[in-house]
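Reminder to self: tokens first, then the designed residues, so the page reads top to bottom the way the pipeline ran.
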């Protein structure tokens, strides 16, 4: 029996384990390893931060996974040997016939001096929870939603955070006493989709949100509560909501698999330069944004190629680099951008206007994955 070892039970790892189980059942032994005891959707962090839900309500415990052929192991991965396809964890050693690295991207708070002392980030669960505690006390002054480096997960998320912050402060009755500024290194909020960007920029203008494109937050001066941008421009703040600089997890960097920060893979098969070793999702460099839908798409290609190897048959078509992201515009309105990164000469993004159908579709996006991955 083949042994597949999947490192990381996020979007990519969960989709891969589920597809392998659905297709191969007990014909393959899948070890799915993650150090956490539960999965949380990225977008749930915004809901937690703005008090729209509790962490308990959005945690999906890995203990619920019951799939033929799949064993979930809560272990911390401490070393990866891609040549030998051997993984060391705090609980032992795992040998693999096929190794799939789906460890996502970590946050590097130290890369932005002052961020840990004077600012807050909302990209991790603890960060979102901390902001949920701080926000009720923010009743006047300037809030900055600021991006500290590229690439970062879910490019529309900081725009959503700025719009939802407007809603939050309005509901608290303090919006008039507060300013919101939004700093992003891109020239537009969602570069592959001019229409989505235009709609977002219009939404910022309607709500009096100051939009500062083309600039990155380089540091925070904790003594003066000032954000320093990469062109030296200074912006005072009373509350800083940051997207920290991302990087591959240390254990992946130490394995020697990375180049320019992330793991290079074939853009068609997702295989790394090590035979039988694949990388999917945020940890890989494949020319697509860091988002769950792309991690899932990559997982499906790897699953299909493993099935073809085991059972014979045609290998799957190349990874397409297509995905749809929902975009919260505030006021309960949800739009969508359908992006295609790999099939044409340049990335494209088609904007779907906010509608009630898309609100329901986003809800289904979450509930269908809860059901498929966790049987909930
Ligand atoms: C605020 C926010 C909103 C978002 N909204 C969306 C959205 O609407 N749509 C969308 O598609 N994407 C969204 N995303 C992005 C999405 O969450 C990520 O791109 C996606 O989770 C990437 O999947 P992955 O499988 O590559 O990695 P992850 O889902 O990050 O999974 C990696 C896993 O590896 C584990 N891990 C890491 N290191 C170790 C170790 N040493 N030992 C053991 N386990 C380890 C982690 O615990 C984690 O569970 C959002 C992200 C954020 C932050």
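Designed residues (376 positions):
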């Amino acid at each position: 029996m083949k042994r597949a070892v999947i490192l990381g039970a996020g979007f990519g790892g969960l989709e891969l384990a589920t597809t392998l189980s659905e297709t191969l059942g007990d014909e393959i032994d899948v070890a799915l390893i993650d150090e956490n005891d539960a999965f949380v959707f990225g977008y749930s962090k915004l809901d937690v931060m703005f008090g729209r839900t509790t962490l308990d309500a959005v945690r999906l415990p890995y203990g619920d996974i019951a799939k033929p052929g799949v064993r979930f192991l809560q272990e911390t991965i401490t070393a990866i040997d891609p040549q030998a396809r051997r993984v060391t964890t705090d609980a032992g050693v795992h040998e693999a016939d096929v190794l799939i690295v789906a460890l996502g991207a970590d946050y590097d708070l130290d890369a932005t001096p002052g961020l840990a002392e004077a600012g807050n980030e909302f990209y991790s669960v603890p960060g979102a929870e901390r902001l949920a505690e701080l926000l009720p006390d923010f009743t006047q002054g300037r809030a900055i939603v600021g991006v500290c480096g590229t690439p970062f997960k879910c490019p529309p998320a900081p725009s959503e955070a700025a719009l939802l912050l407007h809603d939050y402060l309005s509901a608290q009755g303090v919006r008039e006493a507060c300013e919101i500024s939004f700093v992003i290194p891109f020239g537009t909020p969602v570069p592959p989709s001019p229409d989505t960007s235009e709609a977002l920029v219009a939404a910022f203008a309607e709500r009096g949100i100051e939009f500062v494109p083309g600039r990155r937050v380089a540091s925070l001066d904790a003594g003066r509560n000032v954000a320093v941008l990469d062109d030296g421009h200074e912006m005072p703040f009373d509350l800083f909501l940051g997207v920290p600089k991302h990087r591959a997890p240390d254990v992946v960097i130490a394995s020697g698999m990375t180049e320019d920060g992330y793991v290079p893979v074939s853009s068609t098969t997702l295989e790394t330069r090590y035979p039988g070793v694949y990388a999917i999702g945020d940890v890989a460099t494949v020319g697509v944004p860091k988002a769950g839908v792309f991690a899932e798409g990559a997982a499906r290609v790897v699953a299909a190629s493993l099935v073809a190897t085991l059972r014979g048959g045609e290998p799957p078509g190349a990874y397409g680099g297509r995905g749809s992201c929902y975009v919260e515009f505030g006021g309960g309105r949800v739009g969508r951008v359908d992006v295609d990164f790999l099939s044409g000469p340049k990335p494209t993004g088609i904007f779907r206007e906010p509608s009630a159908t898309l609100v329901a579709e986003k809800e289904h996006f979450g509930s269908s994955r809860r059901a498929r991955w966790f049987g909930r």
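The chain has a mean pLDDT of 96.
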